[in-house]
Amino acid sequence: GAGVSQSPSNKVTEKGKDVELRCDPISGHTALYWYRQRLGQGLEFLIYFQGNSAPDKSGLPSDRFSAERTGESVSTLTIQRTQQEDSAVYLCASSPQQGRGTEAFFGQGTRLTVV
Amino acid sequence: QKEVEQDPGPLSVPEGAIVSLNCTYSNSAFQYFMWYRQYSRKGPELLMYTYSSGNKEDGRFTAQVDKSSKYISLFIRDSQPSDSATYLCAMNYGGSQGNLIFGKGTKLSVKP
Which residues does A10 contact at the CB level (< 8 Å), separation at least 6? Predict the structure, then answer.
């Protein structure tokens, strides 16, 4: 594909429900990132995958958050027992670089609203 | 102290003005510096990417990095209404740590 694709683009869920967000990175990109952006705020790092290395999960805010990536392809971010403070835009990015500075390309994001 | 500081603005300028956007950072280990532009309800778009200190120019955009002062800048010449967006600085360590650290973004409005 031409760019990073995220689905769904919008998601409204009830408090306490689980949600799954999907990211399709640019083909051939080895690195994949998830960020969260609350209204009017900057980007908050969640998790980083690089090839077959163990992911950097240091940004996940609680154990309700988890993410997986199959090889160098699709990634899913799962939020269990959603809370209202989880409402935000969840952004995925991918990068072709390994072991150096990162030219990360972002998707359009999934806007999550927890009611 | 946050790792990356960026004035959120908003910043309003007339069309044709030169715009200066800035970030400061605290960690001297940062090696790679980026500027992203984010339009409303869109994902961030990579504008400029520089390594270590120095200048980089691309059309109307110039990125500057001063590692001795831990200060980076983005200049926009002949600003246009289409430049109205939020500008985010980002940086990382390189090496095995690919995580990008972002500033909060500066909201820019260019008035016709």
Answer: A110, A111, A113
Return the exposure string of A62-101: e unless at least 16 CB atoms fall within 10 Å of the residue's CB, then b: eeebebebeebeebebebeebeeebbbbbbbbbbebeebb
User: CA-to-CA distance for A66 and B20, rounded, in angstroms?
Assistant: 39
> Which chain A residues have a beta carbon less than 8 Å from that of B88?
42-43
- Flag whether residue A45 sits within 8 Å of chain B, measured between CB atoms: yes
pLDDT single digits (tens) B18-27: 999 999 999 9
What's the gap in Å between the CA of A44 and the closest CA on chain B? 8
Query: Which one, of A90, A100, A108, A96, lies nearest residue A46 by Cα?
Result: A90
Closest residue in A to B34 (Cα–Cα): A103
Residue in chain B closest to A6 (alpha carbons) equals B43
B70: left (phi over 0), alpha (psi -120 to 50) or beta: left
Task: Confirm if A9 and A22 have CB atoms less than 8 A apart.
Answer: no
**pLDDT (tens digit per residue) in A77-93:** 999 999 999 999 999 99
B chain contacts of residue A32, beta-carbon cutoff 8 Å:
none
